[in-house]
Amino acid sequence: MGGRINKTEWRHSIPICLYKLREWTVEGSDGDEETRRCLVPVRFFKMWNSCQTEGIEIPKDPSAKAPILPLAAVEDPIEAMPEQPRIVRGGNRAFFSPTDDKIMLPRVESFTSAEEEASTRLHEICHWTGGSDSRVPRPHITEGYHYDLHQRGTEECAVELATTWIMAALGFEGETLKNSAAYIKSWVGHLREDDTGRAIFRIASTSQRIYDYLMPVEDEREEGRARAKSQVTGAE
Ligand SMILES: [Zn+2]
What we know:
Elements: E1 4-5, E2 14-27, E3 33-47, E4 53-54, H1 72-79, E5 86-89, E6 95-97, E7 102-105, H2 114-129, H3 149-169, H4 175-188, H5 196-214, H6 221-231
Helix pairs in contact: 2-3, 3-4, 3-5, 5-6
The chain binds zinc ion (ZN).
């Protein structure tokens, strides 16, 4: 294979120990045979990661999937937004934190496809639009979101619907559309029965305002944002 351990990495090896299971029988106090077991170390050696070496060509894993990269088509409208969301990558959950106006997202490679990553990121960006008076303010994001399932259902349906429209406008209508439909269906079940009819209209109206804020036609951008802000008065 050639190559060698990088000089500065010699001291940073990983100790490996191989054990063997040893079994033997003894006579127990009641006269029956008892099996005893213990692990016996049989071999010690050191290992280094490939990144600690030089001159070694690491063969590619043929079963490895192509890396997931953010969808270029989704980057443009996000970059064109007047305000940029603060996105922090890490962990295994996606959510918007209104208290510090921050979106948490798992790393791109944690998603099963670029479309899924884009759809999840847009969903959280849609939540983010509701977290400030300068965007598409929705007070319920901070008031009652976590304990009022009707309010939360309204918000989740609205942002997922807006996400679906944005994804469709960008030309993505495949697997994520099915997932979005299932997600909306799961939250519609949490809407209060006595308010479901009106809530559907509020959801559609909120989705439209979010869409207008995030995806206006270039020369209608300011007009759309002004409309989105003016229509929010009185909305939940
Ligand atoms: Zn959500």
